[in-house]
Amino acid sequence: MKILIAEDDPISRRVLEANLLEWGYEVMVASDGGEAWEIIQQPESPNLIISDWMMPRMDGLALCREIRNMEKSEYIYFIILTAKGEKKDIIEGLEAGADDFLTKPFNPEELKYRIRIGERIINLERRILELANTDPLTGLLNRRAFLERMEQEMSRAQREKKPLSLILADIDHFKSVNDTYGHQIGDLVLQRFVGQLTTSTRPYDFLGRYGGEEFVVCLPGGDGLQAASVSERIRRQVEDMEIMLPDDSRSIRITASFGTASNSIESGKNIDLLIKRADDALYLAKDKGRNCVCSSCA
Ligand SMILES: [Mg+2]
Q: Using alpha carbons only, what angle is made at residue 138 by residues 134 and 139, rounded to the nearest 5 degrees?
């Protein structure tokens, strides 16, 4: 785990850093609150901070308040380590949003176990987030988490003036699979379909389960042509896929229909509109007889 030290005193900083490295942590250092604040805003920044109180530019409490006000999906565990140790100081620190408060000179063993508490909380929070965001059957993002991620990607696409495309995919006549073979086989079919979607997309594309047998793929940087060709490739692979039934010599074949839509600079970051266009295209694909790809031309 990565820990950020915010401390203006070079000697204290070095002592603390040596301890953390000895305990096996990866360490980043900032010599004042302002520098720490810049680090925290970078991607992949540490989730645990040990911060001094009195520092130039931005003090530890101001840093903590800024962090509590920021929009970041992961929790940041904040420990204040300071020479100030009166009751009123501790209360002020906790009031600013700190999780823990230690006074200098610190006892290394105590600090070590207090960091462990922070680690436990960070890991619990990650686990809860993962459970809340994932569809248990397929391991994909659920609808809500997918839309949240879309929100970020749409903003980024708009900022960087890059295309972004969406594919809605729906397994044809899925109800009859469930009716004929039962729900367990239905689940197996969903998992195999998702396996195919995953292998046919790039690592930075992301997928979600949009509804029962409806899935959604976002292609950041992908334009309408790419979305159509990726969809067509998946469609063919799904058509060729043979799903063997467990304890049975029979196998099932399925097909799927696809609707695609792409953003445009003019359309801005209207997610609902983009999804609606992909959905309309999917409806058209179903209407045309299924097992095909239709693209929204708006
Ligand atoms: Mg200081």
A: 35
